Protein 1
Amino acid sequence: MAIVGIDLGTTNSLVCVFRNGKSELIPNSFGEFLTPSCVGIDDDGEQVLVGKIAKDRLISHPDLTVSSFKRFMGTDKKLVVGDKVFTAPELSSFVIRQLKEDAEAYLGEPVEEAVISVPAYFDDNGRNATKMAGELAGLRVERIINEPSAAALAYRKDDEEDATFLVCDLGGGTFDVSVVDAFDNIIEIAAVAGDNHLGGDDWNVAIAQYFCDENGIKVDELSSETKAIILKQAEMCKIALNNSEPIIMSVSIGEDSYMATLTSKKLVEISASLFKRIEEPIRRALHDASMTVKDIDYVVMVGGSSKMLTVSKYIEQLVGREMKANIDPDKVVGIGAGVVAGIKSRDEDIKDTILTDVCPFTLGTNVINYAKHDDPLFSPIIERNSVLPTSHMERYYTVNDKQDRMVFKIYQGENMYCRDNTLLGDIEIKVPKNKAGEECCDVRFTYDINGILEVDVQCVSTGETKNKVILNKNIKLTDEEIAMKQLELQKLKILPRDEEENKAIIARAERLYEESFGEFRDIIGMNTHHFLEILSSQDSKKIRRSKKQFVEFLDMVENQEAGFDVFMRDFDFDDEEDED
């Protein structure tokens, strides 16, 4: 049974398998490698729509569709889709389940295990949420790989030269930086840094806000459908800016049309704070690796949002080194995850490759603040960027006479005071009553290659030991709870592969209808209803021919350079003989 590598992205996801000496991308039912990380519920509330279909329904059915839920992995955030409520891991499980089915259809064998990539700066909760999403999708997930590390593997597999390079991974919702030292068959991650809330989505929001400000539009007064249209247009303008400028952004709201002009200079101006946030993770990663830009040979750009020319030029000027993007930034993490799957399956072509990774955060516990007892200090046990797996122990003493227990709160972060760090959990142990400082406990933190933290506390005088894997109680489920949750989620059936294409075409048409206005909208609506009538006829010959023509029509609608005549073309869906 195959082990696959999955890049579970904020915007798009993909799946790979390692065979015949390389990481092989697996196409979905549309023949595409990228599956949008979007999930929706159909109008009847009984069927789950995943990927391309759901993405097109973000505009036409915003209350029944959701995207960018990866940003909430590891949190208690609940997302409402229609009349149903989901967590981010549950929504992610639908995407993973779709990828699993695509892989099984492509490989012709069951897929029961996966390596899944996560942002390097995901905390324990985010990593465990990702594992749980895989388990809910019916996969065993024993290995989690940091996205920049996966990208480094993809680039280094066929490169024999020693090099030290930066991996800058800007996705839809996260920005990660890794310093990589590659030599022989070893790929060593020297340091990582990142921002879990910086990605292409933020530039879309900045452009949308600029558009509204320019036109005096109050965002709070807009419907969810109109907000979705503006964000979609903002994303399209951001992408178009890579090829030409200025770009005219145009949106119709009711009977009125609004426009704004966007240039690269204006984009940098309106999103200056976002560009500034790029600098800090790069600076911190180099500092932690005890390096400067002079030690870097080149920069690898990863993630779909790194295709923004303004971003790549900004980083190039910042670092002053050659930029590499010879592997598609959208696919490089997935390809690397496929390589890790090959390593895990002990594939002969890759089994000797060694990848070392690091702990992205400092992990520690609370100690007394003698200046202010109710404001405890943070005591690091595992320093950030320690090579994984790692285990480290510190000894702590009682602070009060006749103290009968010690409570160790587990924190993650870089700040002096515990209150400014992230609380992961706690563990309590009894100690004999004695004078202050006479009793002590050894606290050992063990952090594995998947970023899972285990804490062992031993009372030195009694030998009593307490052990705990630190997990958010809302993230970790028992085997029984997972089985129950799987049954619950599987009641919502994912759209069968053989129905996906027609559903996707209709969803695309509905999106274009929402984005258009006037005569454009009328003609799209007329042709869509015509196509729906032919689908209801169940005449496979007519459906096959009309589908081809309707897709051609939608292609021209989406590429409006041809002008108004595109929309006025007369499409005859059922009168001519089928050429096939």
Protein 2
Amino acid sequence: MAFPQPFMDELIARSDIVDIVGSYVPLNIKSGSYWGCCPFHNEKTPSFHVLQDKQIYYCFGCKKGGGVINFVMEIEGLTFPEAVQFLAKRAGMEVPTDNTDQDVARKRRRMLELNRDAAKFYYQTLLQPEGQGVRDYLERRQISKATAVKFGMGASPDSWDALMMAMIQKGYTKAELLSAGLVVQGKNGKLYDKFRNRLMLPVIDVQGNVVAFGSRVLDKSEPKYMNSPETPVYSKRRTLYGLNLAKKSKRPNIILCEGNLDIVTLHQAGFDNAVASMGTALTPEQIRLLSRFTKELILCYDNDNAGKIATEKALQLLNNTEFTVRVLQLPKRRTEDGEYVKQDADDFIKLQGADAFERLLTDSENGIEFRMAQIAGKYDLRDDQSRIAYCEEISNLLAALTSAVEREVYTNRAAEAAKITPDAMRLEVERATRRKSAQERKAQLRKDLNPAAQLQPQERSLRYENVASALAEEGVIRLMLLDDSLFPEVYPLQPEEFSAPLLGRAFFLLWEKRCAGQPVTLASLAAELSPEEMSHLTGICQKPESMDNRHKALADYIRIIKKEHQKRNASDAQEDPLLAATQKYRNKSGIGGKQHG
């Protein structure tokens, strides 16, 4: 284990899971345990269960679970050592490290220092004669010097290796520059700067670290935008450009846009609550990050087809979450030739001004209004057949609304748009609701008729080959966690008798802790098991286990495991005569029958 066990035991003891989870998720106590809406998937009805006595959490919806370290790893996007560091700092504990941990921490710290020094280099270049082209570009884009400083903007020289040579002089190696994505390797094997003759936009995380760079060309060459690759300190799925500044905003919401320069213009115009995703569609990880700072989002994507698709995907992802979501649709701009073209937030503010954008912000639609407008735009509602098709599609959308009041309000609006009576539209929505319910019942029936599939782990790599034995193995682990005093002082089972490798490994890890006098808890296995394995084991612990007949239950579980093991051996022996002869000799001589203390 990377960290000494006494340290880990004390860290977990000091890091109460209710306190940690409660700092991210509102929890309500019910029947002696805590419940809340899961921060790892979208839901309105709480299915996220936190058990203080066992120091574990489990979501019955997305099936994620584990101890306090797993929770911090998942919600903060940290590795195991980083999560330990995070909790230790919170608990005021000094972290003992071995050479491996020190090396990982050193490399991460070194990369962040390199990014910071690169950002300083780009900023200094902006102020020098080599940065004149970028300064001219910023002036054309009406970006003030104060705004450029606020965002830490810089300029990459029109040179093949200016950054590389400057960083080498500071003591960084070529390997470090390559790992950080600041240089790339050509076909001839030579290294050269990734960013050349570009406006540089440092990407800063909510802790204030420079984790990556965005960039833009100064002319019409391609690629117009270029970003850092993913590195040990940067994941674009978990990062939002401008959030380090937007988190300080006094505005009650966050505006989500597409482009980095849109964010710069919005902040300069007084909308300091704007952020942008890093060249990707909105992700669950970004939603979790946003939930720490706001409960209201305003989607402000470009008004072209790609922007509408991105808005629709974001709305689907945010459906049934605790977020209030509105959509700000930017109007198309009319050119001198009379043609209507798309415009982004940057264009709109420069042409119409901040006050006009504020009015759009105030009048922005909620998510359902936007989706209804998109559906209506697909049909000619003067044509009878189109009206019928519209009613069918809109009724499916309205049937998915969980609020009866919302459904009634928007059903009336849909009826008005289609020029039919509210009663007729209501009947169509009710019909769609029944269809939806029937489809859900059929899906549940298919699950119920396949109980073996229900009993299998969600993660395919953990699937059971022998369900009967695995269920008994699950029972043994549950009883070990509930009352390890039930077990004798010698192994009741041998490793080879377990049919599921994970369950066998978990049992003997717990057994080792018992023998060493350490706490026999699931949370203590976080260092040895993957998040997926921890989630599965936490799910096992959620299954009911009566303690009234625990001695008999343990004996029955062990009997089933041994019986299924004998069946597997017999089956293998039929296929392999040499194995049968070997097994017969082992049984006769007593080899393998010794119990280990």
